Amino acid sequence: MLQTIRDRASGWFAYLIVGFIIIPFALWGLNEYFGGGAQLVAAEVNGVEIPVRAYQDEYRDQRQRLQAMFGGRVPPELLNEQVMRENAIQTLVRKELLQQLASKEGYRASPAAVLDAIRDIGAFQREGHFDVARYTQVLESQRLTKAGFEANIAQGLVLDQFQNGIRDSAFVPAASVEDYLRLRDQTRELSYLIVPAERYAATAQVDDAMVEQYFREHTAAFQTPERVRLAYVELSERALVAQITVDEDEVRRYFDDHADRYATPEERRVSIILARVGHDAGAADERAARERIEALATRIQAGEDFAVVAREGSDDELSRTNGGDIGFIARGDMDPALDAVVFTLPVGTASVPLRTAQGFQLAQVTEIKPAVGKPYDEVRAQVEAELRSQAAERRFLADSERLLTLSYENGDSLEPAAGAIGADIQTSGWVSRDRGEGIGQFSEVRRAAFSDEVLRERRNSDMLELPDGRLIVVRVDEVQPAAQRPLGEVQGEIREILKRQVMQTMARADGEKLLAAVDGGDRSLAQAGRELGLDVVRTGAVTRGAQEVPPAVLARVFNMAPPDADRQVRHAGLELPGAGYAVIALTAVHDAAADADVMRATARTLGRLHGALELDAYLRTLEAGAKIRIYRDNL
Amino acid sequence: MNSVYSTDEEKAEAIREWWKKYGASVTAGVVLGLAGIVGWKFWVDYREGRAETASDTYIALTRAAERDAETVQRQVDQLRQDHARSPYAALGALDLARQKGEAGDFAAAAAELRWVRDNARQDEVRRVATLRLARVLAAMEQYDEALRLLGESFAPTYTALVEELRGDIHRAQGRADEALAAYDRALQATTENNEYLRLKRDELQARGNGR
Question: Among A237-251, B51-65, B178-192, which is the least confidently predicted range?
Fold first, then answer.
């Protein structure tokens, strides 16, 4: 068979076949066939793979956002690894799903709309206007290409249209808005009294039998937890900085060697002309672009103004209108090829054509702000601090290596590790599984201290990194086992608990009696209160958010039926756990009437809320219908 | 296999024979194939261009939305006429419905929502339009028609919204028990904090307590 093919594969017939094979490559490019390659997949949404790298980026971003929100000290319960991983992958999956859908259903963003959106971004503006130089600089400093960034913007626009289009088009009929405000801003007039539990402090009786019974039923609550005292070695970069000394000569030498770091760097104002051609363009395009730029260069050499030529001939849309001006540039801001030339050109001379990532470019320097050095005395302290922190960082790295190795190799003692890094072995206070002071306040320390390896086998812990950057290794110095406390020691506590319970029961009994009396119409709440010597609080009209009424009472009041002709006052009772019993009289309910401005604003909010609920239902339906697979093993 | 053709001449002769017989079809096939590919590329570009035009029109109408009702109306009509199958036509109509509804013209809002319900290509957009239509009909006191729409098949993800509206309708009809039951179902299904729903439910329950 192969032989046949080889025999026939000659002459024009062979060329015909090769021609057929070429067509798809010519039209779609080789990368479509070999693109991607083998990479770990985090999830699959309708057959589209989300690589693990994207997931890792998302995870890191979310973590950093969280850290920024709490200024670096995130409450440990929020730093739940599992929850954060799940959030990251769900975010990516939903985004991918939305993108697929938006694209399939025909959502698009035009280049003009993308440009508009970019012009509106604050980071690219100078004095309130879009600034080309700034745009170029920001992108280059973020290592982004314009094409990639613009595609990203387009994607964002489309997703916004999709989501806002559903969310912002919801509305709520005016009658409902009125009804909502009537309820939300409703006020109620009430009076209430509280039969306080404290009232029965003298009369409440607790006998020994009750104490014993309680002790028997709650033995577990009267145990002291297992506690440990820890020995530990710590390594802290901050402490190392204080130990390091730097002599004057060293500071001087470092300053001399790095004078440019203590200066405002040179900046040059640059204009450019671009003949755009990508790196992957064909030879013909490459040649065409080169010819174009050479023609433009000739015009400039012949004495034409750079700005005029830029306006007429440059492919860079953003700078063209400014005569090619892209503003002030510092070293390293631009494409390396351009950078090298721009910082050697004299003012007013155009460069020769340069090949950069974007195509062929001409550059001209229009203004130079020279570097300004600072005198030694002004920066001495800064240089010294820098030297010290560099030295401390080196020592920290070396010492952490030693601490890690020696504490692991000598699992039965901290001495070798402590000796090697010149640290003392310190001792903590008592630490239980869920509480401690000093290093015991950190959950990672407690977890390590009560691990089998450290607690039972009495070995050194792993090297732990504390949230403040310290590294420590701990071992158990002393153990205090959990113990049952005897009845004699705890009966005082139990008596107190039981007494509170009895007081509460007595308050409730009297409160219920009082409620029955006022509700039956025998007397008013005010009268009943006077008889018992209790204050009755009478409020004016209060809202649902009123501060002057205890929240539990307020919640109950707003859950009572309004008074009517038959019952001009409504009564209710409410147990306040531990504090007694409240009796409430509701005398009036006033529905709120809204003015036009509030109505308008509320209509908008309520509409958006409904829109958000509808969008959420919409998206969850799509998720239910999509083929989503998450490869948790790869995360 | 060498034995089939003993000389080069014979081989060439055989190929020439074959070409004489099938040459025209092969050429036609190649031409057709190439034309298909070029045509497809052209069609894709054309479709992308039209989608972008629809997108721009939609952006323009959302910007004009608050100021100029006539412009919005004209742009939505244009989307409907030229890009009926684009999602932007549906979004434009939904936004127009909001404007009409906020201005109190429920009949016009209902007409827009009906158009989306009948013409949108995306199932979920039609579903959202149906829900909104039921809400408008309820405001117009066409309770039976509204309830009929709510009886259509909604995915379980819509339960909270559907039941809240059902509760609103029953409440307006004075059927307190059914309204309360519907509100309770809505509360059970809801994932978000919906204050208005809770207020309505609590009021009904409190009135019930007073009976």
Answer: B51-65
Residue boundaries of the structural domains of chain B: 8-150, 155-211
Alpha-carbon distance of B44 to A537, in angstroms, equals: 76
What single string gives the DSSP state of each residue in A293-333?
Answer: HHHHHHHHHTT--HHHHHHHH---HHHHTTTTEEEEEETTS
Distance from CA of B104 to the nearest CA of A (A): 7
The single residue listed with the structure tokens 């991918």 is: A96
Strand A129-130 and strand A125-126: the pairing is antiparallel
Domain topology for B8-150: 1.25.40
**Any idea of the CA torsion for A620, A622, A624, A628, to the nearest 10 degrees?**
-110
Contacts 24+ apart (CB under 8 A), A546-550: A549/A190, A549/A192, A550/A576, A550/A582
pLDDT surpasses 60 at A371: yes
Cα–Cα distance, A102 to A97 (Å, whole number): 9
- The backbone region for A2, taken as left when phi is positive above 0, alpha when psi lies in -120 to 50, beta otherwise, is alpha
Contact A561 B200 (CB under 8 A): no
Chain B residues 15-74 with a CB less than 8 Å from chain A: 15, 30, 34, 37, 41, 48, 51-56, 58-59
Instruction: Tell me the chain A residues in contact with residue B34 when contact means C-beta distances shorter than 8 Å.
Output: 23
As a whole number of angstroms, the distance between CA A175 and CA B135 comes to 12
CB A426 within 8 A of CB A232: yes
pLDDT of residue B5: 64
Strand partners, A196: A580
Question: Which residues in chain B (134-153) have CB-CB distances under 8 A to chain A?
Answer: 135-136, 138-139
Backbone angles phi, psi at A419, to 5 degrees: -60, -45
3-state secondary structure of A98: helix
A76: confidence class by pLDDT, cuts 50, 70, 90: low
Six token digits for residue B37? 């590919």
Residue A258, classed as helix, strand or coil, is: coil
A266-370: CATH topology is: Chitinase A; domain 3 (3.10.50)
Exposure letters A559-590 (e unless 16+ CB within 10 A, then b): ebbbbeeeeebbbbbbebeebbbbbbbbeebe
Tell me, what DSSP letter sits at residue A37? -
Q: Which two tokens stand for residue A98?
A: 């939305």
Question: Domain-by-domain residue ranges, chain A?
Answer: 187-222+487-590, 227-245+393-483, 266-370
- Does the distance separating the beta carbons of A559 and B211 come in below 8 Å? no
Give residue A454's identity as a one-letter amino acid code: V
Please, which pLDDT band fits residue B135 given cuts at 50, 70 and 90?
Answer: very high
Residues pairing with A249 in the sheet:
none
Check if B125 contacts A (Cβ < 8 Å): yes
Instruction: Give the angle subtended at the CA of A215 by the CAs of A212 and A219, to the nearest 5°.
Output: 150
In this predicted model, which residue has the larger pLDDT, A420 or B193? Answer: A420
In the chain, the amino acid numbered B98 is R
Task: Report the C-alpha gap between A320 and A361 in whole angstroms.
Answer: 13
- Kindly provide the b/e burial profile for residues A296-332, where b requires at least 16 CB atoms within 10 angstroms of the residue's own CB: bbebbeeeeebbebbbebbbbebbbebbbbbbbbbee
Environment class of residue A452 by beta-carbon count within 10 Å: exposed (0-12), middle (13-18) or buried (19+)?
Answer: exposed
DSSP state of A122: G
Alpha carbon distance B208, B183 (integer Å): 14
Three-state SS at A44: strand
Q: What is the ipTM of this complex?
A: 0.83
Q: Name the closest residue on chain B to residue A612, using Cα atoms.
A: B192
Q: Does B80 touch chain A (CB under 8 A)?
A: no
Task: Give the pLDDT mean for A272-285.
Answer: 82
Quickly count: other Cβ atoms within 10 Å of residue A359's Cβ: 23
